[in-house]
Amino acid sequence: MSYEFLLCEINKNVAVVTINRPPVNPLNTKVFQELNTIFGELEANDEVRAIILTGSGEKAFVAGADINEMANLGLVGINKMNKISRTVFSKVENLTKPVIAAINGLALGGGLELALACDLRISSSKAKFAFPEVGLGIIPGGGGTQRLQKMVGQGVAKELLYFGEMFDAYRALELNMVNKVVPLEDLLDTAQEWALKLAQKPPVALQMLKLAVNTGGNTDLESGLIIESACFANAFSTEDRKEGLQAFIEKRKPIFAGK
């Protein structure tokens, strides 16, 4: 399927999805619809085992939602836009395959919400981050108030949300909002390296890991342990478990089939 605002390449079990609305790649309703469709297709594609999400150019990953579109929407229209944005962010967050955000530039507002919905985040040293919504008389509507506080704690989240000020990649790293900071010229190579490593892991085990962490993180410890136990049992029942254990015994590299 062709897309107006997205590019997608698949190579060696890794899909690279690029949001392509230069110069700053803002998110409008059409982009959200396309993201919803492409992540559904990648979920169903057995060839794809890991996904990289990035923005075109060097200026921005995603510099927020499309303000020009938002300014012309009434309550009904903005609710529709907000619904599709939340659908997309939740789909990315709960996809059975790992998603890496390669943050090449500005990650503001909805763009930062999108990055936080990914499993892992690698940032260019030139990237900048912010939740600037309060300065526009609004608040984040794509899960930013919730995912951010779970990641950095409520006090820090309120600081970032209330002031809306921009901060750099190293501050994001200090706050555990990104996993790694690299020079811009190394960003996609590093993301590819991580994605290729993940693509060689047993797919069902990775799926169960993601389910256990995501679901368990939203409940109490005892409930989380029950979820973990069920996910462990599912992973243990796979052919890949047999292959992994046998390869260990035979001192060779396992070849996982995703079964």
TrEMBL record:
Classification via Pfam families: ECH_1
Superkingdom of origin organism: Bacteria
Keywords: Lyase
Family: Belongs to the enoyl-CoA hydratase/isomerase family.
Protein name: Enoyl-CoA hydratase-related protein
Organism: Robertmurraya beringensis
